[in-house]
Specification:
By secondary structure, the chain is an alpha+beta fold. Helices cover 24% and strands 25% of the residues. Among the domains are: 79 residues, Dihydrolipoamide Transferase (Irregular); 204 residues, Chloramphenicol Acetyltransferase. It has 8 helices and 19 strands. The longest helix is centred in the middle third of the chain and has 16 residues. It is globular.
Length: 416
């Protein structure tokens, strides 16, 4: 028998360490060649470490959330193979992926199951309530919580006793209904903040700690813009559907031409501001893994439909975990929008090292006074934040007023 030590490989991009975000094996498990051993993450991408040979896992090194140095031991496999490599290579190119233990509401499907261990380990669980924490995916836990089902009383029929959606249905159909007023639940679920969720937390904390934010909120009448958008969607349907964002991107492109200070990245350690002529607009996108910011590059060179198509493509890639590192980095200014949930106003956090972020709030119909008469108007607020070290209040207000003027008079967005 030969023992193979699988080490953390050099993932590239000058990284010296990576965080363990998921284990797919434990000591004693049997693995086949190319079975997944662990997921490790660097920056905002993960790679899957596969088994280089078939054998039995003797030991694993490192806990979920722990950062390990490149070249450190990850897994020890006992194998019959005569000659094996020392280190497994990543299965595929780095890709964005959700953290190993996301909050319950952030997962929509159970994690992929590896091949089951010996039959005894995969038998349905019959342990009494409280003997151990029930095995279930975040999606199953969320559904159980919504239906008031105590997981400790549900018999799991999945691998290693994992509780499935079908197990919930079987329990719900056989259990006597409990009045909502009679249910009591004092349980507390400990959710490790690891992987992408931790990376997001660290970036936001660093941004708020190092950047003196100030916010500026302005109301915009989008009645004419909405009429134009509806007209274009009706008469040019074949070219694709236009949302508000492509128009806002075009307005920002026009505005930064007059206010280049806001289309910049600030290296505060070197004390250098890099003002960009190209406008690479980050679009804050909520995914099951957390908040990602895919980048629409060279927005200044795109027409409305090209911008809309690129926004749609990048958002889908981010939400499905297929966005590449290049698609998630390099923005010079960011747009953030909660769509229909946009609320009245917000104070968005700047996507460091940028110096400005433009927030879009919900469009509402509101009474306004025009020519001495009260009329109904479609308005929304732009809630934006700026780095006060770089952008003065006058500069920020002038920039947003220029964006507002373009949105309220959309014809000017197409005049050179």
């Amino acid at each position: 028998m030969t023992r193979l030590v699988v080490k953390l490989p050099d993932i590239g991009e000058g990284t010296t360490e990576a965080e363990i975000v998921a284990w797919h094996v434990k000591a004693g498990d049997a693995v086949e060649e190319d079975d997944p051993l662990a997921d490790v993450m660097t920056d905002k991408a993960t790679v899957e470490i596969p088994a280089p040979v078939a054998g039995r896992v003797v030991a694993i090194h490192g806990a979920i959330g722990e950062k390990r140095a490149v070249g450190s031991e990850l897994v020890v496999i006992e194998t019959d193979a005569a000659a094996v490599p020392e280190t497994a290579a990543p299965r595929r190119e780095a890709r964005p992926a959700p953290p190993a233990s996301p909050p319950p509401a952030a997962d929509s499907s159970p994690p992929p199951e590896r091949k089951p261990a010996p039959p005894a380990a995969a038998a349905p669980s019959s342990q009494p309530a409280g003997a151990r924490r029930p095995l279930a995916s975040p999606a199953v836990r969320r559904r159980a919580f919504e239906r008031g089902i105590p997981l400790q009383f549900v018999r799991g029929t999945g691998p290693e006793g994992r509780i499935t959606q079908a197990d919930l249905d079987a329990y719900a159909s056989s259990a006597a209904p409990v009045p909502a007023a009679a249910r009591r639940d004092d349980s507390v679920e400990a959710v490790p903040i690891v992987g992408l969720r931790r990376a997001i937390a660290e970036r936001l904390q660093q941004s708020k700690r190092q950047i003196p934010h100030f916010s500026y909120i302005e109301e915009v009448d989008v009645g004419a813009l909405e009429e134009l958008r509806a007209h274009l969607n009706r008469t040019r349907e074949a070219r694709g559907h236009l949302t508000l964002l492509p128009f806002l991107m075009r307005a920002i492109v026009r505005a930064v031409a007059e206010h280049p200070q806001v289309n910049a990245r600030f290296d505060d350690e070197a004390g250098i501001l890099h003002r960009h002529r190209a406008v690479h607009i980050g679009i804050a996108t909520q995914s099951e893994a957390g908040l990602l910011v895919p980048v629409v590059r060279h927005a200044e060179a795109l027409d409305l439909w090209q911008a809309a198509a690129e926004i749609s493509r990048l958002a889908e890639a981010a939400r499905s975990g297929r966005a590449t590192r290049e698609e998630l980095t390099g923005s010079t200014i960011t747009i953030t929008s909660l769509g229909p949930l946009g609320g009245i106003a917000a104070t968005p956090v700047i996507n460091r090292p940028e110096v400005a972020i433009v927030g879009v709030n919900r469009i509402v119909e509101r009474p306004v006074i025009r020519g001495g008469a009260i009329v109904a108007a479609r308005v929304m607020n732009l809630s934006s934040s700026f780095d006060h070290r770089i952008v003065d209040g006058w500069e920020a207000a002038s920039f947003i007023q220029r964006v507002k003027d373009g949105l309220e008079h959309p014809a000017t967005l197409f005049i050179d």
